[in-house]
Every structure is written in C-alpha cells, then in structure tokens.
User: Which sequence fits this backbone?
C-alpha cells in the first residue's frame, strides 16, 4: 500500500497522506506518508486533516440521532423549524430530501464571493431558486445541507458543533486550535494566504468554520474509530436498526445512488452494492462495505497548493480500494 501512495506523492497528487484499512476484527493496514506541505514538516499519526464534504455524513449521523429520539422526522418540512422559509419555494422541502440531495437545491454555489458575513450568506441560501421539483432529481448540494444544519440546530436547541460532538469522536471537530498539526490545503487567492488550520471550503469559512457541509478536521485515529464502529454497527453512534435505515439506498430510481447523507460506491469501484461512503474535495474519503466486511479511510491534501481536477485522486482512490480488497 505504501508504494501506491509514495508513487502518488511523486506524481504530486498530494504532499501527504494517511490511510487505514480495517475489518470487523481490527486493522489490516494503515500508515502515514509525506509532509504537511511541500516544504513542511512530516505527516505524523497526530496530523489533522480537513475532511471537507466527509463532514456531511458525520453531520448526518447527528440528524439521525435526532430522528431516533423522536425530535425530528424524515417527513418534517423546512418551514416547521425555520419560519423564515414559510412562503418560499423551500417551505415544504423535507429532511429526507435534504439528506438525499433530492430537494432541488442547487449545488456548489460560491456564495462567499458576494456574501462575506454568516447571516448574509445564510440569507442568500434562502433566496436561491430551486433547480428542479423536489424529489425528481439528485443534485449534490452543499446549500441544501446548510438549510438542514439550521433546521437541526432549531430542532435540537443546540449549536452545530455541540450537536455533532460525541464522547467517542476523539480528535474530530471544527476549528482546530493547533494549525501546525494540520495538513496544508490551498494557496488561496480569495484569502491571500496558504490555508492551514482553517477550513478550505470558502462558504464554510464565512460560516465561521462550523458548517454541516464542510469544516470538520480529524486525525487518522479518530476517523478510523468511527469507520470501525460503523462497520461493526455496534450502536456507538446510532442504534443498529437506525444505521441500517440510514444506509439503505433511496434514489436508485433516479439513477444516482444516495442514502441518508451517504453516497453509493462509484461505477467501476470494487466495492459492493451494499457499500456506502463519502468523498471530500480536499482529497479525503471514508467507505464502509458491510458485505465485504471492510472499511477504507483515505486522508490527503490533494488541493495543495492548488485545486485542479480530481482525476488524480480519483485514480489513487480506485487503486487503493482495489489493492485493499485484493488483500
């Protein structure tokens, strides 16, 4: 496995990486490689990685806990918890549609360019027009998760960071206090500096680094522990039946597999149809395959020092999965 990642680093896909492969009985292979930045200190076991959109399913676990307790329901409309949305085209969007990316909300909208404050950006989310009628199409939408984050906070009566926090999360949280331990991401023109120790996603940055769509940082250990708990379905985060319900495919009729906050394995990958996981723009990924009894964690900084097409990390991820599943 190390040779695979050493070659990817030599090809400048990333400056650093950490990985873990495990089964229900324990860890099969894990390691760290490279440097925090191209001219930086070595990656260590304690390195913190910007998870980017891997934040979404971890936030999703918190939403499902609220559903498990009866605080929320999948059928709850946005307007029930966010009165400001009443009378808008988003009033009747449901928790389920937002989790599955079938709300019709547009995705990847650079609102930060025109809305430099938290409240201004959230107001702009409310004004975005829907791209399609709810329930008719899968469109990956960080903006939909921004609505869901506000909804969950209102229902729980807790801010997002407290809502997500669990005793077993370890070093997995928002706004790390030690930037020197973080893998660097982009030399950002908008911010005019190298991003290290603050969230890479610009919209999440405007939201104060605490957002439901991006912003979590994690060590390898912390994400590995989460992955093992999910694979074992041990009840640490959700009751076994709730996790099964969360990871059940819901959008196959729309030709794009989504569960509640997770995505299905990409075409051409060697994961089974039972697999669920998520990728992050910074070069991270977390995949669980109950059928093949395996989890795969990959943490990289593939956007350092510049964001370019994801083809390089996609190839590395496929090779990583293939090698792990062949072992």
Assistant:
């Amino acid at each position: 496995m190390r040779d695979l990642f050493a070659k990817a680093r030599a090809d400048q896909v990333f400056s650093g990486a950490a990985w873990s492969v495990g089964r229900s009985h324990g860890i099969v292979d894990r390691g760290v490689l490279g440097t925090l930045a191209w001219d930086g200190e070595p990656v260590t076991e304690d390195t913190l990685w910007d998870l980017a959109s891997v934040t979404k399913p971890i936030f999703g676990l918190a939403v499902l806990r609220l559903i498990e307790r009866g605080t929320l329901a999948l059928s709850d409309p946005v307007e029930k918890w966010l009165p400001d949305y009443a009378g808008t085209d988003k009033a009747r969007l449901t928790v389920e549609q937002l989790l599955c990316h079938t709300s019709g909300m547009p995705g990847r909208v650079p609102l930060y360019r025109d809305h430099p404050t938290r409240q201004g950006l959230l107001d702009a989310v409310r004004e975005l027009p829907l791209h399609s009628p709810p329930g008719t199409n899968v469109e990956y939408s960080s903006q939909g998760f921004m609505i869901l984050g506000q909804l969950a906070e209102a229902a729980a009566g807790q801010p997002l960071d407290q809502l997500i926090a669990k005793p077993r999360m370890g070093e997995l949280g928002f706004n790390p206090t030690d930037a020197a331990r973080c893998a660097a991401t982009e030399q950002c023109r908008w911010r005019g500096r190298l991003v290290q120790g603050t969230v890479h996603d610009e919209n999440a940055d405007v939201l104060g680094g605490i957002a439901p769509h991006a912003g979590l940082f994690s060590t390898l250990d912390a994400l590995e522990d989460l992955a093992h708990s999910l694979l074992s379905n041990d009840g640490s985060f959700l009751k076994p039946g709730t996790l099964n319900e969360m990871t059940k495919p819901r959008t196959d009729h729309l030709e794009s597999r989504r569960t509640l906050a997770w995505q299905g394995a990409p075409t051409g990958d060697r994961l089974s149809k039972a697999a669920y996981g998520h990728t992050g723009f910074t070069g991270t990924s977390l995949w669980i395959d109950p059928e093949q009894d395996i989890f795969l964690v990959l943490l990289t900084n593939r956007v350092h020092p510049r964001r370019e097409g994801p083809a390089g990390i996609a190839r590395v991820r496929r090779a990583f999965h293939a090698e792990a599943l062949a072992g």
